[in-house]
Write a structure and sequence with these properties.
Isopropylmalate Dehydrogenase, nine-stranded mixed sheet, single chain, 18% strand, binds nicotinamide-adenine-dinucleotide, 12 helices
Length: 352
């Protein structure tokens, strides 16, 4: 467990509570170890990803991360900033090239979404985002030029990087409704043209999947306009970063989206949101995204579909019973804090 900063420790504690309850129900046993990451690690060791934290992750079967970063560490140079110097290297060092984000709209939350019921009802999307290539990892530089500076980022993708994420997405589509949207910007970017050609070629191996190519600007619009058309979306790193945040709005709150980063020996599970410093320490954070990330951990790292499914059902039950954290509060519901939502999920688990 890497609780991290801001609301991280509060939400990870709730996920651990739920995992422990699952352990009792399914006669499992988990061994938990904890290490500092992000700003919390800067405070104790001077670096956001200390060697000991990385090696603990590498020796574990799976990693559950809360969130990192906050205004207290924003002034640090980029090589010590929590997100740039901890999150990206951690993903890279664990070889986590794929980020899976289920965007599932819970019936009880339909009215919490800013979109109309008729548009979003039935939304159930899996976004597969490439995580270790593209702009965020390409060479970058800044240089002085007359009149100011010049900043350069490099967007690099290789055929093999696209193939491995592509195959994973086709296989995910085979296990779902068999529709795959590959999102790119092939009308402008060379890397996107390679992306599109590679996806097109891979399709020969997955004739049972319907493949659609979509430009990212259109995808942004379609997600809001007709989200039900999507089953699995596969896209490159930066497009995925933006589209997954946009997709989170469909579900009512970014506090509802869990994620799994897979590809290496040890997978990493984390909520899709950040450290929410504005509500940290106030028992107001929604822990459900982290609890749902723990469910993904049971599914992908521990191959325990039954336990994963039961957690997901327990979350739906708690929402149907009307329990809400502040950011998804609706008329007629009961507003509760972080810890009580965790307790209610544990109670619901015992009844399923
Ligand atoms: P954020 O996701 O932390 O917060 C955005 C808004 O959503 C805030 O109003 C916050 O209160 C709310 N929110 C987020 N999670 C919530 C939850 N579980 N329950 C209830 N409300 C929730 O994004 P931000 O404000 O842009 O970033 C804050 C810090 O988090 C920054 O330092 C940023 O770098 C960092 N960050 C970290 C990660 C990560 O660890 N993976 C991801 C994104 C941002």
């Amino acid at each position: 467990m890497l609780p991290g900063d801001g609301i991280g420790p509060e939400i990870v504690a709730e996920a651990v509570k739920v995992l422990q309850a699952c352990a009792e129900i399914f006669s499992l046993s988990f061994e938990f170890s904890e290490a500092p990451v992000g700003g919390a690690a800067v405070e104790v060791s001077g670096h956001p990803l200390p060697e000991e934290t990385l090696s603990l992750c590498q020796q574990s079967d799976a990693v559950l991360l809360g969130a990192i970063g906050g205004p207290r560490w924003d002034h640090l140079p980029v090589e010590r900033r929590p997100e740039a110097a901890a999150l990206l290297p951690l993903r890279k060092k664990l070889g986590l090239f794929a980020n899976l984000r289920p965007v599932l709209l819970y019936k009880a939350l339909i009215d919490a979404s800013p979109l109309k019921r008729g548009i979003i009802e039935g939304t159930d999307i899996l976004v597969v985002r490439e995580l270790t290539g593209g702009l965020y990892f390409g060479e970058k530089k800044r240089e002085k030029i007359p009149g100011g500076e010049r900043a350069v980022e490099t967007l690099v993708y290789t055929t093999s990087e696209i193939e491995r994420i592509g195959r994973l997405a086709f296989e995910a589509a085979q296990q779902r409704r068999g529709v795959l949207h590959s999102v790119d910007k092939a009308n402008v970017l060379e890397s996107s043209r390679l992306w599109r050609e590679t996806m097109h070629r891979l399709h020969d191996d997955y004739p049972d999947v319907q493949l659609h190519h979509m430009y990212v600007d259109n995808a942004a619009m379609q997600l809001i306009d007709q989200p039900r058309q999507f089953d699995v979306i596969v896209t490159e790193n930066m497009f995925g970063d933006i589209l997954t945040d946009q997709a989170s709005v469909l579900t009512g709150s970014i506090g509802m989206l869990g994620s799994a980063s897979i590809g290496g020996k040890v997978a990493l599970y984390e909520p899709a949101h950040g450290s929410a410093p504005d509500i940290a320490g106030q028992n107001r954070a929604n822990p459900l995204a982290t609890i749902l990330s723990a469910a993904l951990m049971l599914r992908y790292s521990f191959d325990h579909e039954a336990a994963a499914g039961v957690i997901e059902k327990a979350v739906a039950t708690v929402l149907e019973q009307g329990y809400r954290t502040a950011e998804i509060m609706q008329p007629g519901c009961r507003e509760v804090g972080t810890a009580e939502i965790g307790d209610q999920v544990v109670t619901a688990l015992a009844t399923l």
